[in-house]
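Render this sequence as a predicted structure.
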Amino acid sequence: MSASGNIRRLSVTLEQEKEFEKLSPFELKDKVIQVAGDTAQHSARSMLNAGRGNPNWIATTPRDAFFTLGQFAIEEAKRAWDLPDLGGMPQKPGIAGRLADFAKRHDKALGVGLLTSAVKYGASELGFDPDAFVHELVDGIIGDQYPTPDRMLVHAERVVHEYLVKEMCAGKPPAGKYDIFAVEGGTAAMCYIFDSLMVNHLLHRGDRVALALPMFTPYIEIAHLDRFHFDVVEVNANEVTQEGRHTWQYPDEEIDKLTDPSIKALFFVNPSNPPSVAMRAESMSRLSTLIQTKRQDLMIVTDDVYGTFVPGFRSLMANVPHNTIGVYSYSKYFGCTGWRLGVIAIHQDNVFDKMIANLSAAQRDELNTRYSPLTLEPEKIKFIDRMVADSRCVALNHTAGLSLPQQVQMTLFSLFALLDKEDRYKKLTQQIVHRRRQALWDGMGLEMPKDPNHSEYYTTLDLMVWAEKMHGPEFMEFLRKNYHPFDVLFALAERYSTVLMNGSGFAGPEWSVRVSLANLPDDAYPEIGKQLAAVVQAAVDAWKAQETS
């Protein structure tokens, strides 16, 4: 905060803060971390970095299964060819039986129970040939082959399909099937989707697209890159209650902006980031009906990484599958950001393939030339398979695909969730973020609003709403005139070595901050709440001193 208050801006000037407005919130966070680090170095405080989205938990059982499977895989490699430091390629015939024998010999090994149950589930529920399924897992974890099929391994795709049905479709999928492309996390998915939409003439530079705001900043920044230079229509989650509190929901008039036929695509993060709130059922129904009746040509990209933290979550990929590209990352739920595991899912009956078929003759000829090295009938290549080829500049399509050990770990994560019939793991992760959100509000001395749509992975606090609720509009005006919104971030870093992110960087309210509820110990959150209250109180004291002077 400014020098007029009890908290002085020592590390940065007002001019610097105005320059920082140009930065991505992720780059601004690094500036704040520098200040917090200096404070921590010269004090007894430890840095509390609540700007990170990386969870501080991991799913252990599917990792146990992965490493135990790796031991069996080495046995299989040596069974095929055993020389010092050298083995062969695992062989398929009888491999499921050999895994069963291995499990009996190592019945105390961590993860062996999940492996045994997974093979039974694949055979009984999904109709897999046990030898083919186990061989795919073993050969995959060894990583001795290029991905084949390049889009995703056959059994892995089927397992992940069932996982997405459970978690993204609330167990009630639409008719038909999704094709799935395993990718290097949600970030790779974004790059591949934007690229292939442009390459295949489904979007063009300068086209009008809608962004559901606030949202994950890279979607905003990519849309404004010179290559895309999209004409952006904002669909704002700007609903507030009578008390002035943000619900982070989309009013009907915002959703209805999508009736505009000039809008080619909608980019949507649900639950949102940074508010971390899922679209309520009534709004989801309105949006789905609008698309099905008035905008059957609208292309949708929905990024649903936080969906598992909302009970009963249902994605647009379930409600309007024909129009939707679904993006899902395993990173947050399973604590595996370092694994880089994500998928792109597109329904087999979709608008993207139909739009490509209806391109002009010249455009179709151009694309047929582009993809002709892959097949004698390039016009029949699905959009999702074009995406695979585009991810490797087409020429390297034969070596495309997510690495096989990554696909195996993804498969084991999915099987772990599918076999968890009581959702014990899911409830545990939901409880973790819920109690941290409660602790934050307790630290601020405020009653936490209840919201069944809140994923609670992050929480976004609009300090202006807080200021008005606690001290009235005169104090709000004092804040605006005397302080910069970033003063809050630098005050927390400077006094407490605490790092938050600015909500404005996600197209949120100017005076909002994002607190990650995933990456710090439980006892950090009441402290952060108290620190936020102290920062605001410093401004209150300055305001009252001005009033009495």
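Summary. The chain is about 50% helix and 10% strand. Residues 90 and 139 are 6 Å apart (CA to CA).
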